[in-house]
Amino acid sequence: MLNIEQLRALLEPSVESLGYELLHIEFAGPGGGILRLYIDAPGGIEVDDCETVSRQVSLILDVEDPLKNAYTLEVSSPGLDRPLVKPEHFQKFAGELAKIVMHTHILGRRRFTGKLIQADDTQVVLETDGESYELPYELMESARLEPVFEARR
Fold first, then answer.
1. Most distant CA pair in the chain, distance
2. Is 88 helix (H, G, I), strand (E, B) or coil?
3. Choices 2.40.10.270, 3.40.430.10, 3.40.630.10, 2.30.30.100: CATH for 87-145
């Protein structure tokens, strides 16, 4: 079975040729039975966009047959808690609140929620609990924006 990066290499050119960015790929559900793709575009994503990408990706997966187990394909917009995968994503959302989970402990912790201060090609600086942490992309398990909801009056 392909890993996520190999799957990205297979699908990303086709998704981009349709005018979308392939933000993130994940396996979810019991036993990883759901293949979920998150897509984005400058004007946002509508249901029709998800259907277009789903049809194209389904054709590729049917021909290439890279996944040996049964799966359900889901194509989705990134939502409010959008995944952050590439350095450009972190740079675009500097100043926003994010939740990052690391593969290994950094200074005694794996989970960080705080403000994205800056990002370069190798790491992000996140401020949480009054301290700044340098978190390398290569050690990240997952990263998402953390939605902030304002209280109604």
1. 55
2. helix
3. 2.30.30.100
Q: List, edge to edge, every strand of the sheet that includes 97-106.
A: 131-136, 123-128, 109-119, 97-106, 140-145
As its CATH architecture, domain 4-76 has 2-Layer Sandwich (3.30)
pTM, two decimals, is 0.81
Contacts (Cβ under 8 Å, ≥6 apart) of 92? none
Sheet holding 72-76, edge to edge: 21-28, 34-40, 72-76
**Dihedrals phi, psi of 117, to nearest 5 degrees:** -85, -50
Compute the Cα dihedral for 116, 120, 121, 125 and give only its sign.
negative
Q: 110-152, pLDDT tens digit by residue?
A: 999 999 999 999 999 999 989 999 999 999 999 999 988 877 7
Separation between Cα atoms, residue 74 and residue 127, nearest integer Å = 33
